[in-house]
Every structure is written in C-alpha cells, then in structure tokens.
Amino acid sequence: MKLAFFDDFKLGVVKGDNIVDVSAAVADIPHTGPGDLMSGLIARWDAYKGKLEAAVAAGAGVALSGVRIRPPVPKPGNIVCMAVNYMENGTLPKKPQINAFHKAATAVIGPNDTMVLPDEPATIFEGEAEMALVIGKRASNVPAAQAMSYIFGYMNFIDGSARGLPSAGFFAMKSRATFCPIGPFLVTADEVADPQNLPVKLWVNGECKQDFNTNDMAHQIPRCIEWASSVHTLEPGDILATGTNHRGLSSFMDGDVVELEVQGLGRLKFNVKDELKRTWSRETRQDRKEKGQDGPTTQLTGKYAPTA
After folding, report:
1. How far is CA 120 from CA 165, 167, 217, 292, in A?
2. Rg, C-alpha atoms of the chain
3. N or C: which end of the chain has fewer CB atoms below 10 A?
4. Is 203 in contact with 284 (CB distance < 8 Å)?
C-alpha cells in the first residue's frame, strides 16, 4: 500500500494514477495533526489495514496529477541518518565504523516544495539520495535477526548538507529548515520484495548525478536497526535513513529541479532556492577524484566565494 497526505493533509492511498481519501477510516485515531495521525496509524496498523483496504476498494479517488502531495511522515519523532554507510562501489579499502546522526524533524518538506539555501558560509550545498525506512513498532535493543519485522515501510529521502561551516559537526550542517525532502509516498514493507537490492537515482535538472544500488551498503538494514536501537529506542513513525554513495554528489544551486527515485517508491521532485545566487561547478565527487582532486568543488561566484 502506498500512503500519502494530500492537499490540506488528507490521508490517502494511491490507487493506480489516483489517490483515494481514507481520512474517514482513521478519524477515530487520537491525533492533533497529520504527524501523530500517521504515527498513530502505524502503531495501530493491524487494526486499521483492513479498514483502509475497504475504503480504497469502495472509492475511485481523484487524479494524483490534480492534488498537492505532502510529506508522508510530516513530523517524525526521530530522524536517524546513517553516516558513511556505502562501500562507494568498492572504492573504500575497508568497511567504515558504523555511525549515525540526528536530523531535525522540522527540516522535513514534501514533493514540489523548495529547499532553501541559507545565508551561511558553507563551502558547498549538497543533497544526498537515500532510501529511508520507517519504524513500525517500538524498537529497543533489537537483534539483527529480528530487525526486518520492525519496519513499517520505505520512502525516498534527501539528506541536505551545508558543508564546511565554521561550526564543526552535523548539527549546523544537516538540520537546516527544508533540508529533508521526503516522499512522495510511504510504501508499506510488504510491497518491497528486497530493500537490499534497489536502484537509487538522483537527477539535477534532468542530468543523472547519483546512480547506485542499496546492495552496496557497508552495514545492511538489519545491522543499522540493531545498532540504532541499541543507542536509543525507536518509536512507530521514526525515520531511519540508510546513507548514500557519495561518488555522485554535486552542488545544489538556485533554480535547480531535483528528482530522486528509489525503485518502487515513486519519484520525489523538489526545487532549490538561493537568494544569494551563488554558483559552483557541476562536477561530482567522482569527476574530481578521476582528476586527482579530493572532496567537493569550490564555490565559483557570489557571497563567500574564495578570493584569489
């Protein structure tokens, strides 16, 4: 099942090219807004799955093309992002130490929304293509062998980054407002046959920049859940983003249209705005590596550009 919020955050289920409003079927779930409605539905899924299926069967719905799709998990309790969790197509000499960081829930935006680049002296702004999973039940010290049963579903996820800021660490780099585009749908786990073997592609203005597969993860999904849940309890509706292959990362700039598609999860499209109109080269990290250069490209023009 593909769940989505649309228009004024009505809950819907995708049915072909349409979306069916199922709000009435979940109206009795205690909630004050769409965020805790979704987490409440996830926590009560066994009791409500049949009600949603009946609502979908009875309704034709309206065209997806005629509605505004919202972020499917608008206010997660936790966003846990795995750090350096890909073998980069075999270019890393050894498996990295498992690690993660938190991203602010208020950074979440949805399809066709806008990532806004802040007036800060970042050396570059990037967005990392990722597959994220959404937790289905309370998870604390979960063994890897049982971890997959704790997953409710999957979705596209962008980890926006403002790199090279004077304040070191992930907080200022990762948790900026609008730096977490997700969606368009939350796809239930039963619709994803093998989440450890999915193509991931990201386009900037129609040019494919990132193209990799989730089978390249250094620490696979069960281990990620095992480790994260050993650090703190994960609750229904929490997001765990599984990392990216950094080789295709490139600059995000004003006017960019970015699209991400993890196979089977729909296509997430969003815009980028920078009032300062700063520019960078379009080189990817792999492009630079092939020229013997490390890290991302430097800023070319605009405020904070390095002086000669």
Report:
1. 8, 11, 32, 28
2. 19
3. C
4. no
* Residue range 228-281, pLDDT digits in tens: 999 999 999 999 999 999 999 999 999 999 999 999 999 999 999 999 999 999
pLDDT at 308: 54
Query: Does the N-terminal peptide bond of residue 34 adopt cis geometry, omega within 30 degrees of 0?
Result: no
Candidates 95, 93, 98; CA nearest to 81 is: 98
Phi and psi dihedrals of 164, rounded to 5? 80, 20
pTM of the model: 0.97
Q: Where are the domains of the chain?
A: 2-70, 79-301
Neighbours of 177 (CB within 10 A): 14
Half-sphere exposure (CA, 13 Å, Cβ side) for 293?
11
The CATH homologous superfamily of the domain defined by 79-301 = Fumarylacetoacetase-like, C-terminal domain (3.90.850.10)
